[in-house]
Amino acid sequence: MLSAFAVLIDGLVYAAYLFIVAIGLTLIFGVMKILNVAHGSFYTFGAYGAASAVGIYFNRGLPEAGGYLLMVLFAMGLGLVLGLILERGIMRWVYGRDEVVMVLVTYAAFLILEDVVILVWGPGSYAAYQPLLAAGNIEIGELVLSNYDLGLIAIATVLAAACYWGLKFTRYGRLLTAVIFDRETAAAFGINVKVVFAVTFAIGAMLGALGGAIMAPKIAVTLGIGVEVIVLAFAVVAIGGMGSIEGALAGALIVGICRAATVHLIPQVELFVIYAVMALVLTIRPYGLFVRAKPRKI
Amino acid sequence: MLFAVRTPGHAFLWFVLFSLLDVAPIQAQNVAPPGATVKLGIVSFLTGPAAAPFGIPGRNGAEIMIETMNAGKVPTPFNKVGFGGSTIDAKYIDETGSTANVVTEFRNLVQRDQVDAVVGYVSSGSCLAVTPVAEELKALTVFYDCGTPRIFEEKPRAYVFRVSPHATMDNVAAARYLLAKKSDITSYSGLNQNYAWGQDSWRDFAAAMEVLAPKMAVDKVLFPKLFAGEYGAEISTLLTSKSQVLHTSFYDGDLEAFIYQEQARALDKRMTILSTTGETAIWRLRDKMPNGTIIGARGTNGPLAPDSELNRWFQKIYSDRYGIPPTYPAYQMAMSLLGLKLAYEKAKTGEAKPTTDEVAAAFKGIEFEGPSGSVKLAIGDGHQGISQTAYGTYRFNKEKNEPEIVDVVRFPAECVNPPAGLKADDWIKDGMKGAKC
């Protein structure tokens, strides 16, 4: 019973982390059809930005609650600036090109941004543990749960609800849905697709940076963290279906629960389980759980 | 027609062939003009998760040692300038990347840059990949930090050396310390990275515990992915276990991430953490490293190093330059360079630079005293070092506002290292016969 509860909680915490990281990636793909490898850089910049903000804030002995807010806002601000620079400076010149070309362009941007991180923050690692430890913990039976982790589940839930509401009930959401459905038709109806692209890319970048910010207190913030994340995010998005928000949520939950269950029950296969699940899903539904196969235009 | 355009012409093929033929004799002879500088390739993690706790201290150790060697300012008997009067010219390479990339960079150092020796590598994966290439190229290579015992167990090596003892010593000593200090424990668990280093470390620790305390039960055996970053499920698994001790060989950012996450969930209040590489993190984690953690330094390094003139000198020059005391990767790099220096000077008989084969022959079985104490290349056919080691218990001294390791127990080299000619795994499983404790 305790194990089942532990698997559920661990799975939800991991799923929350995966969903926050993957949602920006799937949003950009859904609207712009860009498999954005530079999403790992948004995560990295978010983590470094948050670590810097935490370092400055907590060293001054200011109230803890403000630290959480500053960490998130600073990282998302960094994501916004970075996203706009990347979209306006690089991506807009390759719109309409082959999807493979765009993947290569984002990969090049990712490599450049890794070096930018060294230029700005140096090769060392940063610690930002204060928000994690300040949040405290709660004891349920033999299990001690971190309040920070429970907060992650709450953030992911709010984010999922906000995305649903934003897409279904706001003007911009409807415009976005129209562009996702058919870019050319949306443009023919007067939607400024270029603006939608720029805004979407910036939102995706902010969400990637948010993922980095919320993970910064739990990890040693160092170079290479974006590589690990982007691989996991791709797996989640592939399971749920590229470009599907519901798919990202379902993919994150499936991966989170499966990983937690294997760590508790069969730890030997932990390394393998995420990709086994992905392979199984793609065998049955090659476009992911929430995306239907489309007829190809010839 | 398409093929005709893309196929290189005969002239190009002949050029490539002749280029290769031209390189081969230079590699085989490996003779440099007299009085030339000694070129060293120094490879360590300069970026990435292992850079701050491992790669950078190792690189800094190399930088400061090479500077002082070139100035002839290392205390006796290492006070000759550079290597036998020839100044050292070092090229620093980042170990970060795939093993294929590590091997490519190694080939570049040897074939393109024509270095006299390569000193480096933190990751056991890198060492396992580089070893056959070093042998193929007949390139003198000194591994400074990687710990897998397999390097010299798989087959004899001619050009590869490792002054630093391997992981078997760390884990046998860890088991001995644990049982000496906590004889009442009944079960333990393991959390190690899922690759050569983590697997070998756990194998040796579990096997040593099986020999020394056969009634003690192994509870959870966890091997998360290297650089996984998130350990929530692992911590829950351990919290719901009955273990009183957790063995971990985690290092780099993984160790720091795990410590932050377990502190948030009070795992260290339930069980003692035994960290075989913990010394690398104490100056960074400070009061965040749990008091009572059993700490290893992969030999008598850092705070566990002997109080000798060489150690005081090394601590001072390193701390003065980098503003932080040297941790064990810095010591291991210093010891590796001192070993290579001694071998080079032993091999050098006249004015000319000794050949790679002459240095390798002189290196074999070498014994010397460095900042970490005494080391002898006694196993692996004279290519693998053994030394005494020590373990202690961590405590953050609030009055002095600095970390300290107390309750230190030292283990002689012959107590915790396998004898020559025996595989570490077989030696432990056979009851560690011949161990002189």
Write a concise keyword list for the protein shown above.
heterodimer; A: 298 residues; 12 helices; 2 strands; 74% helix; B: 437 residues; alpha/beta; Rossmann fold; 2 domains; 7-stranded mixed β-sheet; 5-stranded parallel β-sheet; 17 helices; 15 strands; disordered N terminus
Give the SSE map:
The complex is a heterodimer of chains A (298) and B (437).
Chain A: H1 2-32, H2 39-58, H3 64-89, H4 99-121, H5 130-134, E1 137-140, E2 143-146, H6 147-169, H7 171-181, H8 183-188, H9 193-215, H10 225-240, H11 245-265, H12 270-284
Antiparallel strand pairs in A: 1-2
Helix pairs in contact in A: 1-6, 1-9, 1-10, 1-11, 2-3, 2-4, 2-9, 2-10, 3-9, 6-7, 10-11, 10-12, 11-12
Chain B: H1 2-6, H2 10-29, E1 38-44, H3 51-70, E2 88-94, H4 99-112, E3 117-120, H5 124-137, E4 141-143, H6 150-153, E5 160-162, H7 167-181, E6 187-191, H8 196-212, E7 217-222, H9 232-239, E8 245-248, H10 252-264, H11 267-270, E9 272-275, H12 282-285, E10 294-296, H13 309-322, H14 328-347, H15 356-363, E11 367-370, E12 373-379, E13 384-387, E14 389-397, E15 402-411, H16 413-416, H17 424-429
Parallel strand pairs in B: 1-2, 1-3, 3-4, 4-5, 6-7, 6-8, 8-9, 9-10
Antiparallel strand pairs in B: 10-14, 11-12, 12-13, 14-15
Helix pairs in contact in B: 3-14, 4-5, 7-8, 14-15
